[in-house]
Amino acid sequence: MTSTLAPAPRRTRSPGHAPKSVRWRGPLIAWLFLAPALLLFLYFKFIPMFVGLWKSLFKVQTFLGDEWVGFQNYETIITDSEFGAAIWHSVVLALGTTIGSIVLGLVLALLIEGPARYLWFVRTAAFLPVVTTMAAVAEVWRIMFHPADNGLLNIVIGWVGVDPQPWLASEDTSLWSIMLMSIWRGTPYDMMIFLAGLVGVDRTLYEAAAVDGASTWRRLRHITLPALRPVFWILFTLAAIRGLRVFVEVYVLTNGGPNGSSEVLMTLIYKLGFQKNELGVASAGGIVLFLATLVLTVIVQVLRKRQAT
Amino acid sequence: MEIWIRQAPDSDSAKTAKKLADAFTKASGVQTKVVALFDDFETKLNQQAAQKDLPDIVINDTAQLGNMVSQGWLQPVDKAALKGGDQLAETAWKAATGSDGKFYAAPFSAQSFALIVRKDWREKVGMEPPQTWEDLAKLAVAFTEKDPDGNGQKDTAGFTAPAGTKRGYASWYASSLIYANGGDFIKSAGAGKYAATVNDPKTVEAVQYLQDQFCKTKTVNPGAVSNDTTVTHEVFEKGQGGIYLVGPYVLARFVKSVGTDKIEVLPVPKGPSGGPGTLGEGENVYLMAGSQNQDAQKKFAEFAISPEGQKIGMNKDANGAIVRLPVNTTVDMSAERQDPRWKVFQDSYAHAVYAPPVPNWAPIRQTSADTINAVWADCTADVKTAMDELNTKLTQELQSQKAS
User: Fold this and answer.
1) Interchain contact, B73 vs A148, CB within 8 Å
2) What dihedral do alpha carbons B366, B367, B368, B373 form, nearest 10°?
3) Cβ contact (<8 Å) for A62 and B224?
4) Which domains does chain A have, with CATH numbers?
5) What is the pLDDT of residues B46-79, one digit of tens each?
6) What value, to the nearest 5°, has the Cα angle with vertex B122 and ends B120 and B127?
7) Rounded to an integer, what distance in angstroms lies between the CA atom of residue B304 and that of residue A134?
8) Are residues B8 and B62 in the same domain?
């Protein structure tokens, strides 16, 4: 990316005037404003990250003092048979949730786009899942997923003649059920971003297309979607990160079960760290997850740049 | 002095703990602060440990002992020097023993497991209390098939089970049946060494029996394989299931929420190949390392195990008992509690089996929970094969704990 802002030409100053401090005042004030946030980040984000990295090289014994084990923790986690499965589940869940939310979000955005008065209500209502706490959402869905005939979702699908499903209780459907809930929750968020993106689409293009007799589908395909390209990239990046670090929904709904069928990286790391008390191995898992997220983000960014040029 | 207890904040149990601490303050003059925490209890202890600022006293499950010893969180307890220590049941002391043979806690509360059953349902379907596993299975089928709640819908199950993997629940639930059949997870090989024994026929038979309930007769409440105890308690209370193999700590709650005449407590029938037995568990008073108040810690432990402390903790018949069964042999439980159903748990305690004092039981329970949950969730899974694999995993775990 090239900066469009050329540096302002330096004003020539007559010597003796304007003390040195003036030159520093601007940046200094900026940094001062940033300082509280940076300090908080430093203390609650960056220091813990480095401590995590450091601890991943130890057998962590919080009270006795840690024991150096080098890369053994990494070896343990990478050779753990559950680790591979957890990565696979994370990826499936991330992909499914991302694609589902984007497609549905786009459809919803197109449906409720426009300046009509009553739409604010629809938009607010649609946005509600996003502002509700994940734990609460998951708890409600857990009740709706009740696998018996009298479970709420089973009653609903019964209306269209579908047999009751085990939802979370079967290893064949647990991951898909979690995905369904995640899509429900993620869609409105994507919808809002799309709505923001749609505002930026040049209206005259639509008018021109209408004059040329283009169908709705062609307008969508040739005007709307290309104009939304930057939005897609933002959503892909966000969704990839969100997808990999999914935790609360899985923890509340299935805790990785049954039979490990919905175990994702975060629940595995949690289990290792806080249920088996192997904090060193869990830290190593955390670092692996961080690296995976980093690689994924870089890939998306590279693809984006390639597209842009 | 800070006392942590693994109970939900503001729960009846937390109030009982507060009562116990207040009585202790009155008797000793030592000021106390009770912290009741339920979710992620061990995580929060870990955070305190990292800051080298553990609470002075922790009242927590006996099964956490090895875990806490291996982290260096606990001070050894001199059994002989602990006033009243000689009045405690020997079985309870076993649950306070570390893998090195030293005592690392004062036993505080004990529990065994039994079946809490919907008496009204059992009478409606016209069956006697089960004497064998076969009877038990038949009762479960009747509860599932014969509409015991009489609402005209097939919406009841026989068993309600917390068969998820959180905190190792699947293993916890299966334990009582495994012990009731004479099986075990690991056995002592002498001199602090252990060998895995989950693939022995008696253990396999117990897990197979349960798989049949999940898969063949389908008499377990739907969704059990991803439920923890919190959800399972509600399933029982909502009348979605009629047989709950559980500890006595929920008895007062169910009596209140379901109705006292609808609830009965029956012992776990012994298995076809052995028994009797149930899981033995309870809570210990742990004296935490790094405390500035060692004298007060010891005094609190002595108060907690004294007849007075035990009686306060028992909380009579009311909800919120933090002493489920008294560990002090001089306390007469039937004098404290009128409800005869408690006695079933007390009688079962005579053949309760505690987790052996391996360095760390937590990973063994978690690993076995993962496997047991798997064979219940996947009806095509072969129990024997899965238990053979689990045996290998437990052997490796024991090796890594240097206990095999």
Assistant:
1) no
2) 80
3) no
4) 82-308 (1.10.3720.10)
5) 889 888 899 999 999 898 898 888 888 999 999 9
6) 145
7) 40
8) yes
